[in-house]
Model the fold of this input.
Amino acid sequence: HVRGLQPGEVAPTLLRTGAGFHALKLLEKREGTAFTVPQTRVRHILLRPSQQLSAEAAARRLMEFKRQILSGQATFEQLARENSEDGSAVQGGDLGWTTAGSFVPEFEQAMNALPVGGISDPVESRFGLHLIQVVERRQISLDAREQRQLARNMLRERKFAEAYADWLRELRARAYGELGGPPQL
Done:
């Protein structure tokens, strides 16, 4: 209805929808406006607690790494290559450019709270303990295909969360049914 109009012009015909009739006026045209998303380039050092390394000892070790980096005794990349227990170690802990939703929530929350160049305190996730550094941030434009993929991913995540909540409710209801109702305290 507004494709051939110039800014300030009114569409020659009314648009009919379920809500009634609408007169359309084009206020502004923007050429080449694209949907942009923030991206973060991040690196980390991952230590996995084990029989030999408790979570507390791993956290102390990561705090010592942070102290060494901040004092200039070592670089983040050097310590990641020598100590990180994941595939990013060979790249100095570099995880590359990422968009929202790429990491587990606790990692992403800590990463988003950091300024560029900032280093976190140890962050615990299901993978272990991380020392996180934000290297850079940028805004990138997504083409139509990437926008559709982002929308699909967001819908899939929402459906997954809803299905998981339904499953938990059903599981609790079944457990209560087998036990004869909610537990009595």
